[in-house]
Amino acid sequence: MAEITLAALAEALEATLVNGSPDTTVARLAALDEAGPGDLTFLANKSYAAALAATKATAAVVSMDTEQDGLALLKVKNPDLAFAKASLLISPPPARPSPGIHPSAVVSANATIGKDVHIGACAVVEDGATIGDRTILMPQTYVGNGTTLGQDCLVYPGVKIYHQVTIGNRCIFHAGTVVGSDGFGYAWTGQNYFKVPQVGTVVIEDDVELGANVCVDRARFGETRIGAGTKLDNLVQIAHNVKLGPLCAFAAQVGIAGSAKIGAGVQMGGQSAVVGHVTVGSGLTIVGQSAVSKSIPGREAGAKEDRLIWVDSPAKPMREQLEEWRHIKHLGRMRATIKELENKVKKLEEEK
Question: What pLDDT is recorded for position 214?
Answer without folding.
Answer: 98
